[in-house]
Design brief:
Number of strands: 0
Largest sheet: none
Number of helices: 4
Helix content: over 70%
Shape: globular
Radius of gyration: 16 Å
Oligomer: single chain
């Protein structure tokens, strides 16, 4: 079900989010990557069930990653720090896109 139609998928913020997800895939676990992709798709398509499912499974994957004994603590800290830095950059880019959209409509 495409709530906003194909036009909803052609938004610049969605392209920025997809690029962020691809970069996040370089150093995070696959479960978290899938959940973040589902969350972005649920938001873009305005699908509440998909968004809720992603929000439920995100903490599950993070807990599994936190308690994984086969991954050393240094790697976990780099993943968490890198993910945080990437999300901050992504938020800054989305804020910049929103500001340009407000200027164009004013």
């Amino acid at each position: 079900r495409l709530g906003g139609g194909w036009q909803a998928l052609r938004q610049p913020w969605l392209a920025l989010a997809a690029a962020g997800i691809l970069v996040l895939g370089l150093f995070t676990t696959p479960g978290v990557l899938v959940v973040v992709g589902l969350l972005a798709a649920g938001f873009a398509l305005q699908d509440r069930a998909l968004s809720v499912m992603a929000c439920v499974f995100l903490p599950c994957f993070l807990v599994f990653f936190y308690y994984a004994l086969n991954v050393d603590l240094a790697h976990k800290s780099w993943v968490v720090g890198g993910s945080g830095a990437l999300l901050l950059l992504l938020r800054g880019g989305l804020d910049l896109l929103a500001a340009r959209r407000r200027e164009a409509s004013a």
